[in-house]
Amino acid sequence: MELRQLRHFIALAEEEHFGRAAERVFVVQQALSGSIRKLEDDLGVRLFERTTRRVTLTPAGAEFLIGARATLASLEQTLERTKRAARGEVGRLAVGFVSGLAFGGLPEVVRTFRTRFPEVAVELLELTAAEQEEALREGRIDIGFVLLPVRDPALTREPLWRDPLIVALPSGHALASQETVRIEDLRDENFVFFPRHVRAAYFDQVMNLATNAGFQPRIVQEAIEIPTLLSLVAAGIGVFLPHRFFRRLTLPGVTYRPLENAPIVEIDAAWRRNDASPVVRQFLAVGREVLGSRMP
C-alpha cells in the first residue's frame, strides 16, 4: 500500500465519481481506477460499490475511510513538524549561564526567543564557566553564556555583547557623590570580591587594573554570589567592582558609579563546533539581534 493510494481512495470516497476524483488528484481516470483496484486487491476487500452513475462506499470502505483520513492527517502533521524542526521552530534547547547574566542580557534574549518560538522548550541551567564547558562537551547543554574565554578546541564562541566594569559603593560613601570614580580613588578602600577559584579571569582582571594604578586591593570579605557581595557593600564593609549590567540589581544602601577608563568585559556565547542544530542557530540569531546594540 502506498500513500498515493490512500489519497486516491479518499478523493473517490468524497467525490463519488471517478472523473471528478481523478481531476482532484491530478491523474487520468484510468490511473485512478487502477490504483483503487490494486488497493482493493492488496486489502482483499471491496471498498466501493460501482454503478454506471455513481460510486459509493461499502461498509468496509466506510471503515477504511476513517483510518485513511487519520493516517494522512497524522502524516501531514509529522511532516510539518519535521520541517519546522529543520527550521529550528520546535524542539528543545538547554542554555547554560553564569549567575550574573540573570540580571542583564539573558532574560531579554530568552523572552524574545520564547515569544518567537513557543514550541521550543528552553531549559536554563546556572553553571560556572568551567561547568558550562564540561556540560557542552558532554551534551548536557546546547549553548552557554560565559564571561571567560573558551579554550576548548571542540567548542566555538562568539562575542554577543560587551560591558564595562563599574563601582558599587555604600550610599553614604564620599565617592558616591561623584559623577565618575577613578580606580586610583579606591586605593585606600576595603574591597569585597569573589574567591579567585570561583571566577579566576574576573578576579585577575580587577587585580591587574588595581596593580596598574599602583596598589593592591585589600579584600576584607569574600562571597560567591553577586547579591551577597552587594549586600556587603550596602552594609559598608567594602566596595565592589561589578559589571555594568548589575545596576539592575537595586539594593537599598548601594550606589553605582561609572569607573573611568574601565576595562571591558566580553560576554560570549559558546557551543559545540560541530553542532548544526537549527534551534541553536535560531537562538544565536536572536541573541545577535537583541544584544547587538551593546557591541561597541
UniProtKB/TrEMBL annotation:
UniProt-listed InterPro entries: LysR_HTH_N, LysR_subst-bd, WH-like_DNA-bd_sf, WH_DNA-bd_sf
UniProt keyword terms in alphabetical order: DNA-binding, Transcription, Transcription regulation
Recorded superkingdom: Bacteria
Annotated GO MF terms: DNA binding; DNA-binding transcription factor activity
HTH lysR-type domain segment(s): 1-58
One Gene Ontology cellular component annotation held by this UniProt entry: protein-DNA complex
PROSITE patterns to which the protein is assigned, alphabetical: HTH_LYSR
KW Transcription regulation (keyword) present: yes
Family: Belongs to the LysR transcriptional regulatory family.
UniProt cross-references to PANTHER family, sorted A to Z: HCA OPERON TRANSCRIPTIONAL ACTIVATOR HCAR (PTHR30346:SF0), TRANSCRIPTIONAL DUAL REGULATOR HCAR-RELATED (PTHR30346)
Protein name per its UniProtKB record: Transcriptional regulator
Species for this entry: Deinococcus peraridilitoris (strain DSM 19664 / LMG 22246 / CIP 109416 / KR-200)
